[in-house]
Every structure is written in C-alpha cells, then in structure tokens.
Task: structure prediction
Amino acid sequence: MNLMALALGGFVAACTVAAADAVYGQSAFRPPAVPLVACDPYFSIWSPADHLYDAGTVHWTGAPHTLVSLIRVDGDTYRLMGTVPSGLPPMPQVSLKVLPTRSIYDFRSGKVAVTLTFMNAALPSDLDALSRPVTYLTWKVRSLDGSAHDVSILMAASGELAVHTPDEEVEWAVEHTGPLAALRIGTVDQPILERSGDGVRIDWGYAYLTSPQAAASTVAALSDCVQEFVAHGRLPALDRRMPRPVQDALPTMAVVMHPGRISSRGKSVLAVLAYDDLYSINYFGEWLRGYWRRNGLNATGLLKAAVADYPRLASLCTIFDRDLMADLTRVGGTKYAQVCALAYRQCIAACKLAADSRGMPMLFPKENTSNGCISTVDVIYPMDPLFLLLSPMLAKASLAPVLNYTASPLWHFRYAPHDLGTYPQATRQVYGGDDPAHEGDRMPVEESGNMILLLAAIAKLEGSPEFASRYWPQVTQWAHYLEEKGFDPENQLCTDDFTGHLAHNANLSVKAIEALGAYGLLCAMRGEREEAGHYQSLARRMAAQWVKAADDGDHFRLAFDKPGTWSQKYNMVWDEILGLNLFGPKVRDKELAFYLRTKDRYGLALDNRQPYAKTDWAIWTASLAPTRAQFKALADPIYDFLNATPDRNPMTDLYWTKTAREVGMHARPVVGGVFIRMLTDGNIWKKWASRAPNDAHNRWAPLPKPPSGETVVPTGEHSPVPWRYTTSQPGPDWMKPAYPDANWAEAPAPFGTSGTPGIAPRTDWRTGDIWLRRPFVLPANIPTKDEGPRRGLMFRVYHDEDVEIYVDGILAGRASGYVTSYTLMPVRPAARKLLTPGPHLLAVHCHQTAGGQGVDVGIVRIGD
Result:
C-alpha cells in the first residue's frame, strides 16, 4: 500500500466517533485563542479569533505566523483560514470544537460542508509520536445539495515560521521522498541554538509542508500563490529569487489539493506541516536532539513516517480524546473537561521533548511570557499533574535534568534550584544568581518542597521509591533544609513571585509541611523506619502548630503575622493525593467555606492583596473540595472567564477575577496543573497512568562533561590577552579588518566587573556597551574543514549580557542573555569558510543592561 492510500485510509477512522466529539467537544465554548500547531515553544501557532478567517494566525508570542487556506467550489473561492486575500468572502464557520489532541472547525455554504481538523498526535502512550514536530491538517468536504461539485483546496505556510524577525534572509527547496514532494524553508545563517530568551522565535532549522494528495506545490510570494489559485485554481512557478528577507514579498510554501468531484459521501485530503530544529537544547554543553531523532531519523524520514502513520494516529487520537473527555466530565463536569481540553496541547507545546546520550526522554518546559527560563522547578510543579496522570515517564523526564544538575559539582546549595538557564540554554541557574547572600531570590523553600512532593507522587504511583533513591543525598538534604527553615519561611519568594517577597507565608509553610510528610513517605518505602517515623511525626506536629499560628477566625491567614488576611492554601491538595492526612477535614472545610463566600464572578482571587486568580492554583484549591458541587462552584468560573475574556491569547494563568482581563503570563505549561483533580481519584489515576510506557530502570545519563578542545585563540582565563577596545559608539564598519582602531584603548581580557559569577575580569568595564578588536593568526596545522556544528572550530565565550562575534567583518556568532560560566558557540557557516590558515580579525560587541557584566572570547577546536 502506498503512502497516499495509507493517508486516505485514516479518514474513516478519524470520523468513527463523531457523535462522541459532539457530546464532549462543547461547541458553544469560545476559547480566547485556538491551538492549531502545538508542538514545542517554537512551533506553536494559534488562531486568536472566534472564526478561523477573522484574524491572521500567530505564534504564541503574537508575532505573525501566517497560515492560509482557501477552497474553490465550482470556480468560486472562499477563505477558510486567515485574512488573505481580504476581499475574498469566507465560507461561514458554523462550529468549533477544541479537544485534547484536535481543533475541529466546521464550515458550510449552500453547496458544501467542510470540516477542517488540526491534529497533534500528542499521545502519552506513544512518545515517538508525541515528540514529532508535526501537525496534521485534514479537510473533509461533502455535498449538501445532492449535486456533485468540483473542489480544490489551497494550503499555504509562510517563511515567518522559520525566522525571529522578518528581516532575516531565507532560502527554500523542494525535496522528494518517494511519492512525496516536500517543501522546505529556513534561514541562510542557521544560527543553531544561538538565540535565547522569552519572546523569541526560532531562526534555525527548517519548516516543511507536504501533502500526499498534492496536485501542485511551490514556494513563492504569498500574494502570487493566492492570486493564481483564486483566478485559476493553480499555483505559480517556483520562485527562485533567493535568498531574500521574509519581509520581501513573504516567501510562502503552498500546496494545492484536488479531492475531485464531491458527492454527499464526501472526500478528504491531508497536509502535513512540520519543523525540524536540527538541535533542540544546549544541555550543559551537550546539544540534544529532539526525542524523535534519537535513533537517527532525519527530516525526510520524519515526513515519510508521519504520512504513513496518519491512519493509526488519527484513530488513536479520536479514541484518546473521547475517553479522556469522558473521564474529565465524570470527575469535574463538562466545563472542567473543556478547560482541560484547552490546556492539554498548550502544556505540551510549551515543552520540548529531547533525548539524552542514552536515548532517554528529557522534558524541558519553557517559562513563556515571564523570563524565558528553562526547566523552572516552580513551573514543573504545577505543570506535572498532566504528566503524573497520563505519563509517569514524562513526569520523571521533567525532573531528571534538574536532579542531574543538583547531583553535580555545579550546584553548591543545600536546597533545590529554581531553573537550569534561559531556554534553550540549559547551562546553569540564572534566577537569583550564585551569590549566597541572595538566598531569598532563589525560592529555597518553594523549590525544595516542589521536588520532594513530585518525587513522592511518582513513588506512590509506581509503588517504588527507586527514581527518588537515585538522588537520595540531594532529597535528604532538601528535607533537612525544610526541617530547619520550612515551617516559618523567612522573607523570600514563592512560585507566585509576581506578588513579591513575603515572610511567614502560610501557604508556603503548608508546602514545607506536606513535603516533610512526603519525605517520611519516601523513607517508609525505602525501609528506613526510624527516619520515616521521625518525619511523619514532625509533619503532624508542624501541621497542628500551623493551625494555631495561621488561624484567623473563619479562615486561615496569608501570613502568620498578618491578621485580617487570607490566601488560597492550594498546597494542601497533597494531603489527599499522597494520603498524608496532615491537616484534616476541619481545616479543609473551614477554608472551603470561606472561599465559596469570597469568590468573584470569574473565580477566587489568589489572596486578599489583588483580585487576580491563578488558573492552575484555582483548580488545585477547588480540588480540596470533597463534593462535586463545591468543586464546580470554584472551578466552573474559569470556564466562564475563558469564554468571556476580550484578550485573545493562548490560555492565561493570571487574570482579574472581576473583569475577565488577562494580567499577563499566557501560553505557559503551568496550565497542565488543571488536571490535578484527576489525581484525587486513585482509580482514575491508575487507569490512565498504566496506559503509558514507563521505564522502571530509570537509566538517565548523568550531567554531561564539557567536551575537550584544543586552544587555537586563547581567552583571558589563564593569562592576559590584549584587545583594543572602546566604550563609545564606533563607526558602522568597526568590525571590518580595514577599520582604523589606533585611537582605541588597549587592555587585557576578560573585561567586566568584580564579583560577576564565572569570570575574573582583568580590565574593569562598567558601561552599557563595549566593542573589542583583536588580530590573530590561524596556524597551518589546525584543520579548518567543516566538521559539523559540534565539531571543529568553535568560539569559547563568556558573555553578560548580549554578544555578537565577527570574523573578518562577517557575523560569526551571536547570543542573547547571559551565562555564568564559559560556554561553546558554533561558528556560523559563512564565517567558518573564512577561517583558513593565516591572519584574521576577531571583533566582539557586548551589551549590558543590569547586574554583573563580563565578556571574553577565544577559539578552540573540538575533536572526536
């Protein structure tokens, strides 16, 4: 059977439970933004409108990521997706269903009905499929008037998918994989893993578009593709004017599909949109590939496998959506089920699933719409209920990178870290820095409690403490810290850091108490009876003491020393989930009664300080409720908020409870926390967790060792290295060899300020910018051929903050943000070609905004 036949065979399976979709899809729901492409933090495209044709499609950051779909029916053309061309009428959209793995739009004209489905095979039972950066689009068309109709469909995806800014140049090609013709587009520079931060898009790797039913395909200006299709139902010839900036006529991948004459039975066509990022995460100097690549699969193989697997995956996604929506509805009601359905793909798309050196999954969440941190522990904590329920393997995969870091010499604190860096650079914690005096900025009680509670949840589910035992010295150290500091926290941040520092935080104290009880549970599972008894008894005594210290009449306080205040005690949910029973039903019922009296139209505020709610914590608090009616009273207003908010962004986790306006922080993985209600039903939890693959051996590789290299151009780490430099804005050609720099000062590297972590400056630099120039000679005995992105000549760099590196006037490397140790950076392909034996010029610009600062650059050769 060929690929086209396989793809077509899946459409029947995809429609077998249409009735169930109608029941559980909640078509009356109006999400603030609809997930269309939901694969990872870079490949994440949304529709911020009621109708798919009301607005252009965007990346979660709001940047245009233009997708267009048009349909011709007997020569008349209609818009289905996007606003291009603006003068073309849309085919009226009559319904929308958002399910866990699919978004389904229905359109209807006088002649035909169209169902356009976006599907991500985000199946926790199939990590290969879940990790593939692939979105399936299917159009099912059927006749409504009893007549046959000629139909053709255009699908287009712009080059915006492959750039951070539209001035970046792209190039494109057509690749053939057997019967498939795949379109590819990507940047010329290919700055792999250079760009980091929060509101950024990817500008390395390649976007792909293919269809097994494509009658024509091309890459050309979007306007030309649309004009030719509207006028003639075809596409223009391949545009060969490249490379060029994306903003120059918007080069766009486009396919036209002809399902043929359409009757009342209907026909379907399939398109596959994919993105191969080549490398996904810099994990302490080791560049990790996407999990789907771990056995050598490349982009060509990805597309071939994606098309061949469509029938199986379409059937599995349909069944998964049906069964999960049924259980969500059974546990929390129809509104709760819809909130979870909207959260599901958002949570997964805010993470990247990579593979370590042993092929084990490593799940890296990105702290979107915040500071862009990677593997933030207080993001993993609210996120992981989704994975604890549906894939214990992925729950462990989210913790393993952090645990490896804490078990390495790089982490030297007695509490758990906050993060691993700034996405996609998992190279060292950035939040709070390394200064021991800033302990309160690193959330020590918060993160230590988070890690212990999640490890205990995994152990309870698996019936074994083996995963936690691999890191037992660290876990024990965190428990000792909480024993000393946890009951009455000092003036420090918690996960709700937007509220500022707070001493004597009652809810943070609850977390510490629950975590100490959870540590006692782990000790008991390990057979350490004396330790188990000590910590279980300690947690019970602390809980009793807490009730007295936090009591404020008909509720419990925000902080022990602040009468007349209150807050949600969402951390108490672990009492039931882990079976700790530390606080008891009287405490729970007293708080719940207060919450039910205090909630606003769109939900319960986080605390008395501001009338805003956290979506994730509100469901955690609602999950304290022993009755379905109480749960719905606290949880259903979140559905009402999502249905009413005028802010058309992906699901937020912070909003005003009186006005339904977003405060900020959307598209974040923390919305996975809404699944926590499912964990309070032990049978439901076991049912779903048992469906996913797991690895009882926990064979994750330890933290990678830095690659060895031969110094070619030394940094100033070990001896002074002279540079010419200026802190005044130089001329535009300052990086070119011929630029006159005789009037620049000369001093040895490194440059920076004393006390900046990871660098020992020899020359003081305190201004906002510095420009450096240094001649060097590349020896004849140094191999200069292209040995791949992680071999051969590389920069050895320290930068705090943004850095640009030039070789002979050509941009050779760039990085944003800051590091806390020297790191390796690849030399861009265009500059690598210049590195032949002989004299050259190295030029560097570093920009600084706040805090410590430093810069130093050299060149090393990395061998096998």
The first helix runs from residue 3 to 14. The two ends are 43 Å apart (CA to CA).
